[in-house]
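Lab notebook, design round three. We kept the backbone fixed and only want residue identities now. Task for the bench partner: fill in a sequence for the structure below.
Input structure tokens:
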């Protein structure tokens, strides 16, 4: 018989989680103003809010923590991390930061000014927030196939070259500090970008003399999909694939809390010395000295090991296949999701799941809240609330997709947990026609409102 799949690791330590009743969860979510970010973690049974910084580190990473060099300047831990980043990405210059949005803050402070436009593929919320905070505009150039959740296109994170070229032709290059390609593309469902598309985007950027930057938080998962889905890369290692696609860019920002396999950290890597020098000033102002940038020495050491582990096939296979296992289970129940399944999460299609709830009543948020009430599972809305208001008109922006993201932490949950999640979703889906009303906003921040928004049930 064919042998079943088994994870390439053993469990060395466990963490207890509390169970709760539906009645308790109804009370808690009301007290949290129906914002899942406001819940304390001990009120959550399975936490799928994010895969950022929530993974389990390996024994080798913990061992590296014990020999971390906490010197303020020039620590050996910094040099380990710098050498690892150079080996994996090929970029010449390196600046550590405390997390991904900090890397964006430093780099964008050096490059983005009011009136600029930054094209890319479905910018992540913090990326768009940093751009709009500087009175610039993020222009989405993702392929149209990404917005049809039933379309099986293998690389839904791809940039539409015609859309991108239109941006280049309608704006002076002085107003386009860079083009950003997010790998994998979180906002379109954890979808990968093909090597062919990266190469074509790079060629177009070079033709128009535009810098190409990667948002590389999940670059290793992107490389896994290239290996599995793109002709010509079947026999390449993950490290060979990552080195290849980074060679087409000019730099990257990284939230190391994803494919760095650590609980905190980030960095900027660049080829251009002038940009690096500009970024140094802001790194010292906002983060710390250039050889620690808001990170402890021990965390830099753990990240160096984590980047190496995350770019190995066996780890990535166990990671991505667990996501696919959950996806196949709930699709068998008829639950509508973004297909193909993403690399770090399953994205529920709220437009198809609960079309009975009006969009202006935030149907994806309503579905996410129901998932918590019924099963104690915390996901996150990737829809109208996250899309925020138009910075000019202050009207709600209604994205093509209303999604609920179930982000699976790395090396944390078992297949039994996946079965539990699937069963909860089936029960909710079977009673979906009973859902008639959602929520209204009673308090919100002027930008990136989804983190702190307060809602009221209609």
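Proposed sequence:
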């Amino acid at each position: 018989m064919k042998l079943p799949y088994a994870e390439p690791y053993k469990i060395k330590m466990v963490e207890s989680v509390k169970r709760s009743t539906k009645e308790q969860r109804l009370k808690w979510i009301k007290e949290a103003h129906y914002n899942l970010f406001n819940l304390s973690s001990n009120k959550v049974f399975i936490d799928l809010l994010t895969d950022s910084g929530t993974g389990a580190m390996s024994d080798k990473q913990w061992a590296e923590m014990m020999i971390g060099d906490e010197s303020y300047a020039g620590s050996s831990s910094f040099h380990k991390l710098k050498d690892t980043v150079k080996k994996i990405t090929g970029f010449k210059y390196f600046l550590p930061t405390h997390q991904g949005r900090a890397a964006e803050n430093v780099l964008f402070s050096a490059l983005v000014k009011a009136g600029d436009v930054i094209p890319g593929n479905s910018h992540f919320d913090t990326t768009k927030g940093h751009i709009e905070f500087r009175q610039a505009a993020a222009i989405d150039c993702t392929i149209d196939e990404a917005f049809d959740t039933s379309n099986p296109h293998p690389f839904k994170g791809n940039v539409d070259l015609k859309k991108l070229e239109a941006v280049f032709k309608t704006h002076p290059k002085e107003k386009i500090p860079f083009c950003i390609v997010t790998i994998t593309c979180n906002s379109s469902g954890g979808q990968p970008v093909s090597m062919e598309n990266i190469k074509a985007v790079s060629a177009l950027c070079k033709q128009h003399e535009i810098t190409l930057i990667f948002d590389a938080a999940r670059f290793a998962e992107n490389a896994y999909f290239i290996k599995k889905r793109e002709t010509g890369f079947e026999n390449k290692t993950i490290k060979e694939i990552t080195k290849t696609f980074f060679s087409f860019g000019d730099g990257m920002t990284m939230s190391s809390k994803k494919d760095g396999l650590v609980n905190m950290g980030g960095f900027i890597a660049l080829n251009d010395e002038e940009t690096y020098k500009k970024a140094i000033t802001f790194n010292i102002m906002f983060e710390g000295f250039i050889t620690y940038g808001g990170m402890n020495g021990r965390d830099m050491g753990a990240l160096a090991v984590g980047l190496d582990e995350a770019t190995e096939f066996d780890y990535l296979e166990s990671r991505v296949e667990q996501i696919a296992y959950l996806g196949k289970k709930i699709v068998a129940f008829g639950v509508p999701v973004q297909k193909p399944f993403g690399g770090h999460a399953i994205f529920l299609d709220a437009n198809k799941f609960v079309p009975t709830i009006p969009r202006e009543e935030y149907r994806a948020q309503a579905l996410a809240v129901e998932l918590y009430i019924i099963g104690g599972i915390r996901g996150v809305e990737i829809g109208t609330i996250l899309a925020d208001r138009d910075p000019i008109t202050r009207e709600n922006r209604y994205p093509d997709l209303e999604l609920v993201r179930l982000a699976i932490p790395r090396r944390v949950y078992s297949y039994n947990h996946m079965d539990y999640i699937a069963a909860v979703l089936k029960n909710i889906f079977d009673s979906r026609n009973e859902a008639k009303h959602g929520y209204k906003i009673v308090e919100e921040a002027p930008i990136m409102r989804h983190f702190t928004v307060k809602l009221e049930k209609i």
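Keep this in mind before ordering anything: Residues 22-51+313-457 form a domain with the Aspartate Aminotransferase, domain 1 fold (CATH 3.90.1150.10).
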